[in-house]
Write the structure tokens for this entry.
Amino acid sequence: MKILGIESSCDETAAAIVENGSILLAQSVASSMDLHAAFGGVVPEIAARSHIEFITPVIKNVFSESGCTWDDIDGIAVTYGAGLSGSLLVGVLSARTLAIIKNKPLYGINHVEGHVYANFLMKPQPTFPLLSLIVSGGHSQLVYFRDHFDYDLLGQTVDDAIGEAFDKVAKIVGLPYPGGPSVAKAALAGNPHAFTFPIAKLDSPYNFSFSGLKTAVLRAAQAAVGADYRLPSFELPERLTEAQKCDLAASFQYIAIKTVVDKTRKAFNELHPTSVVIAGGVAANQELRTQLSAAIPIPINYASIDLCTDNGAMIATLGCIKAMQHAETADPYTLAIAPNLKM
Ligand code: KG4
Ligand code: ZN
């Protein structure tokens, strides 16, 4: 069983071919990240235009790299939500067109659910029941899977996603876009206990909140340069010393990661899953891997870094499992994008 996966929900245009839901035959990712750097965040129109440019090359790449022909492909899986409308449209329309002209079954994939499946490309594979912490630029969720397609959303962010908080904090202290990796890098030279930031207390035991933390970092940065809340944030980068930037990054990262790790530990102790996986762009964060490994008494399943951020392999893997379990196919003439798709 070989599935072509297509992903274009944000700023990565990606394709991959996966066999039997566990073997990655080829993958190709083109990112428009550099084009967004000057704006400090993804510009949807630029991302969409860039997808149009890259979608055919990434699909061609995975065929030439894997040596597969269309005759080898058993189906096409594509992200249809959640994500940016213009970006999703490019992947979905490409997949629909290919499904029609190549006469292949089409599988619509939920991007966030897809992130979890990057872990099924690793050895050992995760087992059910499975607890997954999904942490990306758009999502922060704790999901308990009894089996494939049988899951409960335990909790999620009530405001910003954790990756979004990394990106915003990077902007406040003047670190380059994308914020996650640059905050993580600056944090290596900082003291995680230089600033004491709060963890939001919420009614639901498994929900997260990061917007108060982001404001706390802003106020601490203003105080660190001897100013108060009236100092515009765009003046901070030139007034903060390198040491202050690193301390702010390290202290923020420590608490943001502790927030999600505490909830994951609580869910683990209550539900006793046999596997714990982390998924999404922030799963690339080393502090998260360190804190989580210390908090959970079983080995954690980690995907390789290139499979944590957006990619086609995770989409192809979930598509493969859908195909192997004879899940419902999508209609290639009508599959619509779902920008606000939930788990
Ligand atoms: O999953 P992803 O590629 O796209 C979404 O579906 O959102 O995640 C992107 C997010 C960004 O917010 C980025 O800053 C964050 O993942 N990220 C990281 C790291 N690498 C990427 N955050 C913290 N530490 C990292 N090493
Ligand atoms: Zn993602």
